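Why does residue order matter? Because the sequence determines the fold. Keep that principle in mind as you read this record.
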Amino acid sequence: MRLIRYRFKTKATEDFRPLIDMKDIQMPWWCSGEVADGSYVIIICYLPKDEELEKYWDDAYDIEYWSCNQIEYSGRFPKPDWIE
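Structure:
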């Protein structure tokens, strides 16, 4: 499966979850950090190549992305409990 790994900024609010629940597509996401002044958070997520990031985070900006073939989990980005 062709995937895109995204790293981007979004507004820091109490709820920075995706607009659409990603459990349905079994793709993970994580909040990687928050800037000291509280103006934005950094999100890391994977999406299938044919999915649009803005469908899930419509306020995403400073978007970086990489094409990949698989999801890589780590101690910092563990597999979420809701992914089968």
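The mean pLDDT is 92.
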